[in-house]
Amino acid sequence: xxxxxxxxxxxxxxxxxSRVIRCSIIRHYCKRxxxxxxxxxxxxxxxxxxxIQIQGWVRSVRSQKEHLFLHVNDGSSLQSLQIVSRPDVxxxxxxxxxxxxxxxxxxxxxxxxxxxxxxDKMCVVGECNPVNFPFKIKERHGIxxxxxxxxxxxxxxxxxxxxRIRSEAxxxxxxxxxxxxFMQIHTPVITSNxxxxxxxxxxxxxxxxxxxxxxxxxxxxxxxxxSGQLHLEVMxxxxxxxxxxxxxxxxxxxxSRRHLAEFYMxxxxxSFTQCLEDLTKVMExxxxxxxxxxxxxxxxDVDLFHTYVTxxxxxxxxxxxxxxxSIITYTEAIDILNRSSExxxxxxxxxxxxxxxxxxxxVKHCGNIPVFVTDYPYDLKPFYARDNQDHPKHTAAAxxxxxxxxxxxxxxxLREERLDLLSARLAQNGLENTYNWYLDLRRFGSVPHGGFGxxxxxxxxxxxxxxxxxxxIPFPRFPHSCxx
Length: 484
Ligand code: 4AD
Known about the structure:
With 484 residues, the chain is an alpha+beta fold. It has 2 domains: 125 residues, CATH 2.40.50.140; 325 residues, Bira Bifunctional Protein, Domain 2 (BirA Bifunctional Protein, domain 2). The protein is built from 13 helices and 19 strands. Bound molecules: 4-amino-1,4-dioxobutan-2-aminium adenosine-5'-monophosphate. The site of 4-amino-1,4-dioxobutan-2-aminium adenosine-5'-monophosphate has 23 residues, from strand 12, strand 18, strand 19 and helix 13.
């Protein structure tokens, strides 16, 4: 398939000493059509003694008098497969180039790898000029440097590990919900509602010629969704457990290390529930189940982060998993802040929103483990939050999960299911006509229900100990930056 553009090398004879003998014996058995294997399969010993073919990108090149050693990686694992070939190839595959190698997979004489591929035939599928390639062989590039190359950073060990972890965590989230009876709903990306009511919306209109004068494409203003919650609530009127997991968008003018304009959110909605504990249980269970899965199934990749990117973080994660998450009310949180000797920049009066500095302090105060903060002032929460009418202070049945190093990881509430209270609150905000359909949900078979959302990138930041959210998403979008 590559033969017109690619360079093909066929090795015939005199490799040296023991390798030659082993190779010729093995070649005898290896005349059949090569089996195409992924690097991870070859490393696990599949195809041992067989004629195999692998395709991937060169991660290291070491030329010795008698042998040329390459390490080839195809993204299937952190480890690369060692290729041993004759040293006198006419074009040396360079660091970063794409190659296809055929030969016999055999046990490696070295302790450093279980197997190696004795190359019979090597084909450079795509050359890579090492002078211009931004990543250099044997150099460990800083995470900020790598971030400048969103189109190439998947070729680095750290970022490819991140992408494998992200993919495995995504699968684990879906498994968790499936195993616990939740149905997945594909909530829309384009919507006419502002669920959070914060006005942080990206409006959607056609560009250029398609645009009609003074007329919205959808006849109403439409936006990229800030949350799938309201659509999940629709579904929770027919399915008692639903979830969604997709991209959400916020036009927040923030350059912080924990905000993105586009991020992935896991959202769940549970019907027939009247207590926040039903929600905190799902949040904690999901968190534990996904984290334990990732730690087992991506052990090498996670270890790379915990060794080179955030040394020592593994101990914090292990310690956290052994403890139950804390739970305090907002009122208790304010008391803790007010009793502390710390000088906070933002006020800590009852009624104030908790700022990052407060969240950090509270998490530390609770022993550096995740902490649920419940029952926030009613006025701080969006229109859908349930009024805790029986509380001495005016609070809503809302809960945030705060975690070390990141702050708010999850936000959830019981939803106001009582038609009269919800109508009154919408009317106060001039929204009763906009949300007539939402009021219908309370008119026809309304049940007490609640749900939450977890920021997926913040989750990855927390378990890996990554400081900047831009380093845990393939293509970060933030103010003044939409590369690629
Ligand atoms: O607290 P939030 O705004 O809650 C909601 O959107 C609810 N409607 C969810 C629900 O109940 N179904 O956002 C939920 C989580 C936050 O706790 C945070 O982890 C993450 O989404 N998040 C962001 N992550 C990255 N960048 C941003 N700009 C984020 N804004 C929120």
